[in-house]
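Notebook entry, cofactor series.
This is the third protein in the set we're modelling with a bound small molecule. For this one the ligand is calcium ion. I'm keeping the input format identical across the series so the outputs can be compared line by line later. Sequence and SMILES below, as received.
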Amino acid sequence: MKKTVVSVLLALLLAGMVCSISKVVPAEELGIIHINTDGSITPSTANITTSDDVTYTFTGDNYLPIVVNRSNVVVNGRGYMLQASGNASGLLLSGVSNVTVKDTSIINSRYGIYLASSSGDVLFGNNVTNSCYGITFMLDSDNNTVIENNIINNSYNGVTLLYSSNNRFYHNNFNNDNQVLTYRSTNFWDDGYPSGGNYWRDYSGGDQKSGPNQNVTGTDGIGDAPYFIDNNNTDHYPLMRAYSSSPNAKALPCRSVAGEGCQVKINVTVINDGNYSGNFNLTVLANQTVIDTCSNVTILGFSTFIMCIIWNTNSFAHGSYAINAYFLSTSYGAKMVNFNCAGGTVKLTVLGDCNGDGKVNVLDLISIAGYLGHRATDYTAYSPGWCAFNNCDLNGDGAINQLDLITCACHMG
Ligand SMILES: [Ca+2]
Ligand SMILES: [Ca+2]
Ligand SMILES: [Ca+2]
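Returned structure with ligand:
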C-alpha cells in the first residue's frame, strides 16, 4: 500500500517536472529562424516579412524558434502564433537593444521569450502561455519594459530573472503556479499610482481603500496591500481584476471647416472590444479649451456607442483647433486614457468659406453647387464625402440647397 502511494507521488512529481510540449515536430522541420544583424531573414520560407529592415511582421504562424540578432527593430506577430519545439526558446533576443516584440502568441516552447544580455527592449501585448518558462531574462538583461502581456499557464515560472535588474513590469496578467523566480535581480513591478501594477491570479488582498498609500476610504481597483515577490521585488499596486487594454475611442468632428459662430457636431465613438468596463468622466477639448464634459459615462465590455457633442464656436477666434477627448475613470484604478482623434481638426474661418482658404469667393460657390440636392442622410458618418458635404452645409440643416448658396454669396468678397 505504502509502495503504491510512493509510486503515485513519484509519478505525480515527475509529471509535474516534465514540461509538456504538445506539438511533435518532424526532424526535417527543425531549424531556427534568424533576423540577422544585416537585416535579412533566414530561412526565406519563414512566415515573416520586412520592407525596411526595421519592422518584421508575421504573415502567418511560425513553428520554429526565432532568434533576433539585430537591434532597433520591431517584431510584430499580428496575433499569429509562434510555437517552438523541443528545448528551444520561442523568441530569443541575444545581445540586442531597442527591440520591441508585440502582439505575438507564443505557446508550447521551453522558453517563451528569452533575453540574454539584452537591454532597453520592450515586450508589449504578447500572450506567453503553456510553455515551461514564460519570460526569462538572463545575464545583465536590464532596463527592459514588459507591459500588457498575458503570462499564463507556464509550468515552471511565469517570469525568471537571473542577474537582471531595473526591468519594469506592469499591466500584465499573471496566472502560473510559480509566478516569478529571481536571483540577484531587483526590478520594478508597477507603474506607480493610479496606473497600477499587474494582475496576479494568486493575490489574496482586498480592496477597501484608495490613494497612493492605500489609506483613503473607497475602493479603486488596486489591492490595498502590495504583492510581495521577494525582498527585492514587490508590486506595490496589484490590480484586482485582469488587465484588458483600453477601449478604442475617437472624437471626430463632423466637419473640418466651420464658419464663425457655427455649431460643430462632434461624435465621440467608443469601440470596446475588450472586457474592460467602468464609469468615466468624459472631457472634450478644442486645443486646450474644454468644450464639453459628461460625468459618469458607463463603458461596458464588448460594446460600442456614439455620443454626440455640440461645440458652439461663438467665442473662438479663427484658426485650427485639434479636437481631443479623454476619459478619466471614476471606478477602476482612476486610469486616465487619452484618445486622440484621427483627422480631428476643425478650421474656424469666415462663414461661407467651405474650402477653408480664408476667403469667400466663387470657389466656395462651386463647392456648394457640387452638392446641391444632397442630404445628410445620403452619407454614412465618416464615409468619403461626408465631411466635405458638412463643410458645404453652411446652415447645418442637413441639406444643401439655395439657402447655403445665398449664405455664401452674402459673405463674398
Ligand atoms: Ca485599493
Ligand atoms: Ca474659400
Ligand atoms: Ca443647408
